[in-house]
TrEMBL record:
<keyword id="KW-0732">Signal</keyword>
<dbReference type="Pfam" id="PF13609">
    <property type="entry name" value="Porin_4"/>
</dbReference>
<dbReference type="InterPro" id="IPR033900">
    <property type="entry name" value="Gram_neg_porin_domain"/>
</dbReference>
<dbReference type="GO" id="GO:0015288">
    <property type="term" value="F:porin activity"/>
</dbReference>
<feature type="domain" description="Porin">
    <location>
        <begin position="14"/>
        <end position="324"/>
    </location>
</feature>
<dbReference type="InterPro" id="IPR023614">
    <property type="entry name" value="Porin_dom_sf"/>
</dbReference>
<dbReference type="GO" id="GO:0016020">
    <property type="term" value="C:membrane"/>
</dbReference>
<feature type="signal peptide">
    <location>
        <begin position="1"/>
        <end position="26"/>
    </location>
</feature>
<protein>
    <recommendedName>
        <fullName>Porin domain-containing protein</fullName>
    </recommendedName>
</protein>
């Protein structure tokens, strides 16, 4: 706990300095907080496992008369899956998943601190039910995890600077830079072996639109970084994604071309993920598939299905099953409960 406080101190000091520097005419100060807890019983080929994970986010925002907003956001919890914007992991019993300063204006949003990069924020759009197995904990349980996740390689929650434009005619552009793959507090390398990148640049483009009864979202992301290990390839990852909504139905696809990003040179990988879901009131169902094509014909496939039932407020029960094939073959099942507040 002392180590966490020591590492948070520079960021908190910067926040205090910025708050002091704001005009005294600021007319609105607001504080918001939210949390999520997730517990599950998991069954795989190696037996049973129990896990619990949580995250609590607090955000203080100061808005001036001119409309300029400054906020400090901190998420404390058990870590981050590094694959979704609001899914807690179990990287550590207590850590700061994310902590960042945000400046909001008519010209866009500027963030400094531990936060997902521009490419991930643009392409992480597939709908998630309560279990979230498409990007969930099963990869930590199964004897064979995917060689790359459905969003490919990026900067995770490394300390960075991020800028996103306002959404204009449905379009939003983002760009981010992280000096190296390291965060203020969380040990992100624990979940991303071979995390030796430096000078990580990300760019993301996202478009949202409607056509008659259909709503859709399209996105592209690009990540580049230099490897500090001569045996591993430099990061160069391209991501393309699309999502379509019609009533309670949705369908989406994400394609990633990672090359040999963060892998042994020449060991290239591409990934395609498809997902379909349906939600009707408190009930939801989803089907998904992820296929990874590795160099030298080493392929990986995972198929998943999930059911969810919102039993009370924001508390949901989930039942998920995943079949994976690649290296080893097997099944993973999860019975979980998730509470948001």
């Amino acid at each position: 706990m002392d180590v966490i406080l020591v590492r948070l101190l520079p960021c908190l000091s910067a926040a205090a300095a910025l708050l002091v520097a704001l005009p005294a005419t600021a007319d609105t100060v607001a504080f918001d907080w939210r949390g999520v807890g997730h517990g599950a019983i998991v069954r795989s080929g190696d037996g049973h496992d129990l896990y619990g994970t949580y995250a609590i986010t607090g955000e203080g925002t100061l808005t001036t008369d001119s409309g300029l907003g400054l906020s400090l956001t901190t998420t404390l919890g058990a870590g981050d899956y590094q694959k979704s914007l609001d899914r807690p992991g179990r990287n550590d019993p207590l850590t700061a998943n994310e902590i960042f300063l945000t400046v909001n204006s008519a010209w866009g949003r500027l963030r400094i601190g531990d936060e997902d990069g521009a490419a991930k924020r643009a392409t992480d759009m597939l709908p998630l039910l309560a279990g979230g197995q498409m990007d969930g904990l099963w990869t930590d349980i199964a004897p064979t995890a995917p060689p790359i996740d459905h969003l490919g390689r990026d900067s995770d929650d490394a300390t960075k600077i991020l800028y996103e434009t306002p959404r204009v005619m449905g379009l939003r552009l983002g760009i981010s830079y992280a000096p190296k793959r390291d965060s203020l507090v969380e040990n992100i390398a624990q979940q991303t072996p071979g995390a030796l990148d430096r000078d990580l640049w990300e760019a993301g483009l996202n478009y949202q639109g409607d056509w008659q009864a259909l709503s859709y979202e399209l996105a592209a992301g690009y990540v580049t970084a230099e490897s500090r290990n001569p045996l591993l390839g430099d990061t160069e990852s391209l991501k393309l994604a699309g999502l379509l909504f019609y009533g309670g139905f949705s369908g989406g696809v994400v394609y990633v071309e990672d090359g040999d990003s963060g892998r042994l040179k020449g060991d290239e990988a591409t990934s395609t993920t498809m997902m379909a879901s349906y939600e009707n009131g408190p009930y939801g169902a989803a089907l998904w598939w992820q296929g990874v094509d590795l160099d030298m014909s080493r392929d990986y496939n995972a198929y998943g299905t999930g059911l969810s039932w919102r039993v009370l407020g924001e508390t949901s029960l989930s039942l998920d099953a995943v079949r994976y094939e690649g290296g080893r073959r097997g099944w993973t099942g999860m019975l979980g409960v998730e509470a948001r507040f």
